[in-house]
Design brief:
This protein is mostly helical. It is 79% helix and 0% strand. It has helices at 2-36, 44-65, 73-78, 81-113, 126-130, 132-153.
Length: 156
């Protein structure tokens, strides 16, 4: 399981880094075309917005996989033994519930509700853009199930 988690972490980190590089290049292109060529690129702002949404969700998924997300650190670090294990499991179960209910279920409802609406410049379905929410929820769910298993097996 650790090998699978490591592969997922690497894939997400490289994908997110790639998206950030593309986003930076697009912003530089936008500045160049606007101020040097005096003919601003039309598509870049919309594409950067889409990439920002996707890289944010993928970056959040990566944070859950590497356990770098926000958590109740004070309680986690001050506890020992069974109490510490219970706090870890509780936090991970709450995150799992959020991923399933809000990201997967709610994200799918949102994405499917706007599938017929297209972006003004690129003509991409807004539903395809918003599908990153349930996709990210699935990734976080997988990570949280692995994290809960690690929590239960934790030796303190």
């Amino acid at each position: 399981m650790n090998k699978f988690k490591k592969i997922m972490n690497n894939l997400l980190s490289y994908l997110t880094a790639f998206l950030l590089i593309v986003m930076t290049a697009l912003v530089l292109w936008q500045v160049f075309t606007r101020y040097i060529l005096n003919n601003p690129s039309v598509f870049t702002e919309e594409l950067v917005r889409i990439i920002l949404i996707w890289s944010s969700f993928l970056g959040a998924s990566y944070a859950f996989g590497t356990r770098q997300h926000m958590a109740l650190v004070f309680f986690k670090e001050k506890s020992k033994g069974l109490k510490k294990k219970a706090i870890y499991v509780f936090i991970d179960v709450m995150i799992l519930g959020f991923a399933i209910l809000v990201l997967i279920k709610g994200g799918y409802q949102l994405a499917s509700g706007v599938m017929g609406i297209k972006t003004p410049i690129l003509g991409i379905s807004r539903g395809l853009i918003y599908m990153i929410a349930p996709f990210s929820g699935i990734i976080i769910t997988i990570y949280q199930l692995m994290n809960i298993k690690e929590d239960i097996e934790m030796v303190d």
